[in-house]
Each structure stands twice: as C-alpha cells, then as structure tokens.
Specification:
By secondary structure, the chain is of the alpha/beta class. Helix content is 31%, strand content 24%. Strands 1, 2, 3, 4, 5, 6 and 7 form a seven-stranded mixed β-sheet that branches. The longest helix has 15 residues.
Length: 192
C-alpha cells in the first residue's frame, strides 16, 4: 500500500516522520479554499480536508492523506493572510485572547474516506507593536492559518494551549495514527 501525502507543508511531512511514516509521494491538492457564506470554522475545516483528499489523483489501492488547519476567533475563520497587513490584523485580533485551532484530517482509500478533527484552545499573550512588527518582518506568517506558526518565533506569543500541540502545527499525530491503522496502514512500531 502506497501512502500519498496531499500537502506541500514541510511541517506535515516532519510530523509524520515523528510517528515513523514516510510518504511514498507528495501530491498537493489544488482546490478553492474560500469559506462558504456563513460557514463555521469546524465544518469548514472538515469540508476542506475532505475536498483535498478527493482532489488528489491516486490509484484505487493508494492511501491519500490530507489535512487542513484553520484558526477560529469566535465564529470567524482566520485563514492564510493575503499580505502582511492582513497578518497584522489577525495578530492584533488574537492578542491577549483565546482562539481555537481546528485541524481536520482526511484519509482516502479508493472510495472510502476516514476523517477526524481536533480542536485546540490557544491563548495568545498581549502583543506589543514591536513584537508584531518584528514577527511580520520575519516572514514566518506567510502561508500559515491565522498568520502565525506556533512551532517558530510565534511560540513565544503562546503561554498556554489546551489540546494537541501537533494539531496546532498542522497534523494531530494520535488521531492520524488511528486513521492510518483503521485503513490498514501499519505504523513502524507495528511492522514485523
């Protein structure tokens, strides 16, 4: 059984390696990730992961793994910022507040799809203008939901999380391992 990772995120590839999984191929899904009008963060995230896993070309016996991570501030979806101005607006909105990070994982084998989502609570400290400007200058905000990556410099902005750190980075490892097992993909620790 071949495993195809439907993501160009190096973080997801690194996270899979932590549980001994190395994809046989990487084929990023190309879909429209625009939220539907009135769509809430959790259903949005699950829909995007599902659409990604369906969009990746694969043979019927290939296992395709896709994920989506969304930052939610109340009912508002904070996706990947279009520019530094939007990233700054996201950071100011989350400063001194709690928000949720939703990560959905979808796994496809033929026509069968397994999926899970994980919601992690994140508290961001009160950020100063200098901290936000330095973070924006670093460029780390680019391509990241909510305009920050907890595994980088923004880790210093987060004094508390309630849930899975790996889910905030982009792939909840325990849930992903469970899905892989359910699909019949043996993890390294289970191979003889």
């Amino acid at each position: 059984m071949r495993l195809i990772l439907g993501s160009q995120s190096p973080r997801r590839k690194d996270l899979l390696a932590q549980i001994g999984v190395v994809p046989d191929d990487v084929r990023p899904a190309d879909i429209d990730e625009t939220p539907h009008r009135g769509e809430l963060p959790r259903p949005y995230c699950l829909r995007i992961a599902r659409e990604k896993v369906r969009a990746v070309p694969a043979a019927p016996d290939d296992l395709v793994l896709c994920a989506d991570t969304t930052v939610a501030l109340g009912r508002r979806i904070l996706g990947k910022p279009a520019d530094a101005g939007e990233a700054a607006a996201f950071l100011y909105a989350m400063s001194g507040r709690r928000h949720r990070v939703v990560t959905a994982v979808a796994l496809r084998l033929g026509d069968r799809i397994w999926e899970r989502d994980v919601v992690t609570q994140v508290r961001m400290k009160q950020l100063s203008d200098a901290e936000i400007n330095a973070y924006l200058a670093s460029g780390e905000w680019q391509g990241k939901a909510g305009g920050y990556g907890i595994q980088g410099r923004a880790g210093a902005f987060v004094p508390w999380i309630g849930g899975a750190f790996s889910a905030v980075v982009g792939l909840p490892l325990a849930e992903t391992a469970t899905l892989l097992r359910a699909a019949g993909y043996p993890l390294d620790t289970e191979r003889t």
